[in-house]
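[User] Could I get a sequence and structure tokens?

[Assistant]
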Amino acid sequence: MAQVPQTFDAPAVRTWCGLALRALGRAREEIDAINVYPVADGDTGTNLYLTVESAVAAVEAVFAAHEVGAATGGALPGPSLADAARAMAHGALIGARGNSGTILAQLLRGMAQVFAADSDRAHADGRGLCLALRRAADSARQAVAHPMEGTVLSVASAAADAATGARGDCGAVALAAYEGACAALAATPGQLAVLEQAGVVDAGGRGLVAVLAALVETFTGRAPEQGVFPSAAAAAGDGGPTVPHARVCPADDGPGACAPPASGPAFEVIYLLDAEDAAVARLRERLDELGDSLVVVGGDGLWNVHVHVDDAGAAVEAGVEAGRPHRIRITHFAAGDAHTRGFAPPRERAQRAVVAVVPGEGLAGLCAEAGATTVLARPGEQLASGELVDAVRRAHAHEVVLLPNDPELRHTASAAAEQARGDGVRVALIPTRSAVQGIAALAVHEPGRRFDEDVVAMTSAAGATRHAEVVVAEHQSWTTAGICQAGDVLGLIDGDVAVIGSDVTATAETVLDRMLAAGGELVTLVLGDEAPDTIAGHLENRVRESYLAVDTVIYQGGRQGALLLIGVE
């Protein structure tokens, strides 16, 4: 039998992250169901899962880079503890979702600061883990504008306190931290009235217990016996720490069903921010004036900002004044949800829904108007399968048609569809390769048809749509059309570079002519924010003058990465 590690090293970080992701995956629905604080939006488990999924991806990328180096003759050693810990913290920071995910990202960052300091050996033993847990709890508390007891902060502090009193290797310290966290979690209903009234423990704290259980398993090879919460262990009469008198809201009750009445800001605003420390200090003051649930985590020039406000625009503008906000997410707490916490009747599940990945805000609005649940893609960054599963669940339908609109998302979308099927949802994945194919599929969508017939019609419409895009090359490279230089304008048809030019409009016209040479009835143009102002009119005139009986529709795509998307059907 292989021995489990008793000191922290890079493989231990990798193992811990993987086990934590699986633990949160198992507990996600349970945690979502007991989520009543700070808002009853029923997504704490999902947000924690997505945050850790981003951390896992970053750690795996570090290991993959070293494996590639070794395979090409570099003879690189494996990543160091500092490399893996920094990757874990950075991945969690850029992928943090919601109030709970943002705090977890700061907890992981605090631990990474200890593991990456000075030398690996000085901070990799049980004493180092004690220091890491203490730094994590303290830094997370400092990141929250108005810390409250009875939350994940209390659970983190209790874990650090218990670890400090432990003696031995990392396994002993991790177990002490876990048991301290369990006891603190059981006490949360007595610290927050909203939890006591709903009969639940703190959802964020419950998620942290799952993460600490994974830490114990990393160093002992066994998950703690009391790793299932809230009430299953107590009902079984087992010994050890339990969470008494906690109840799980019925799955179909909707996120407000367990919560007492309350009110608060209308929007959740989250964004990454490139800014200096001094500017962030001013930003904290400004956002604290605008709203509540303020958490600002990060450092070294990159921050994750989370706040609940009534004026979402003002929150974003405050970020612009502080630095460069990006990956902005604004969620409206609708009536009967989140801050409006009345005892809402169950939301009836729709028969069928469409979930579409879109590259820009403009298309997101267009698809949403057509009735689709949208997931906004991020240029240069792969979506996680958990984000697609989250969207399928938000669609709240018996049947879902999934449109990934990107060939790179094929395997991710397949994994998400399989996971959603495990939830009892009938999912059809149409392998759309571009947003213009998704638009064509959505245009023929008929919810009243039989599911199979609807999927066939949508698949046929997508397959009959040729797709192209016009982009600017970021660096020199070989292409199917020859060698391009950084700054060249590239025209890609069906995924392959077909035209290399210097002028955006001229390149787009050449691409359009090549596509229409094979015939067509409708041209769809989706303009990115950085496309020339005159390009749409020029291409529309070109179609009208040179191709009889071909119509043109134009959409504003927003910040979609490509200057222009073209569809011909």
Residues 227-262, 334-346 have pLDDT under 50 and may be disordered. Residues 44-71 form the longest helix (28 residues).
